[in-house]
Design goal:
alpha+beta, four-stranded mixed β-sheet, four-stranded antiparallel β-sheet, 14% strand, transferase, PyrdxlP-dep_Trfase, aminotransferase, transaminase activity, HTH_trans_reg/aminotransferase
């Protein structure tokens, strides 16, 4: 496993030069866990690298349905069908308990993938898949996504507004899409682990970068000062109360 750094524009594709890997795993719509969207020119650079090296790119598009700011960018799969394996799930849009996702393979890999899947298990139960297919065909899924985007946007805006009122302008990554943001608090509030522990003492869910999957590699550049904040399951009122409670814990000023 070879980690590649990310910044506010996503995967630093210039770091791929000289890498002879055969597979790259990326989350370009909303990089996990830090949240930035992979810029168009970097998408192109990643695909050029894959073509030169005969590599495949796994595009995990786990929450691409929720984008709030800026233009939609084309999926890597749409830009290079023969080099990209596309993954997506309904766990973010409908619920994790549904346990239905899907993969789109290059045509020349489809049969091998189907064979491997058959060897791994006997497939999912059929009833949920049929119900989901009818929900999509009826237009209900599109209407549901439209409602959820509006609700999540309101919750995200409330979180950004309350953080600024209580703590001033904090560095934030990933707010343009998805259902969580990464936030860096000033050093005076302590490191990420201390901050998250103090928040949990008051039933506030903050998470370290390591808790979001950044624990596998030493020296993660965002590990020390950043925390992850989710907002999808909260009402705007809960967001406001939670940030106010956090400010009280940390002794921060700002509006009340």
């Amino acid at each position: 496993m070879r980690p590649v750094p990310v910044d506010a524009r996503g995967l630093q594709t210039d770091r791929l030069e000289g890498e002879r890997a055969r597979l790259a795993y990326v989350t370009p719509s909303h990089q996990f866990p830090m949240g930035p969207t992979l810029a168009l020119e970097r998408r192109q650079a990643l695909l050029r690298w894959a073509a030169r090296n005969g590599a495949y790119v796994i595009e995990d598009d786990y929450d691409s349905e929720f984008r709030y700011d800026g233009a939609l960018l084309p999926a890597l799969k749409a830009m290079s069908p023969d080099n990209v394996i596309y993954l997506a799930t309904f766990s973010k849009t409908l619920g994790a308990g549904l346990r239905i996702g899907y993969m789109i393979f290059p045509e020349h890999l489809a049969q091998a993938a189907a064979t491997a899947k058959a060897l791994l298990d006997n497939g999912h139960v059929w009833l949920e898949q049929v119900a989901l297919a009818r929900f999509i065909q009826s237009g209900g899924f599109v209407r549901h996504l439209r409602r959820m985007r509006q609700q999540y946007l309101a919750r995200r805006d409330m979180l950004k507004t309350q953080l600024e009122q209580r703590f001033g302008r904090l560095p934030v990554m990933g707010a343009e899409a998805g259902t969580h943001v990464a936030v860096r608090f000033p050093e005076r509030f302590g490191g990420a682990y201390s901050l998250c522990a103090r928040a949990r003492s008051r039933n506030i869910g903050l998470y370290t970068v390591q808790a979001g999957g950044g624990h596998e590699y030493p020296g993660v550049s965002y590990a020390a000062g950043w925390v992850l904040m989710g907002y999808a399951s909260l009402t705007p009122l809960q967001v406001r109360v939670g940030v106010a409670r956090l400010a009280q814990i940390l002794g921060a000023g700002g509006a009340r």
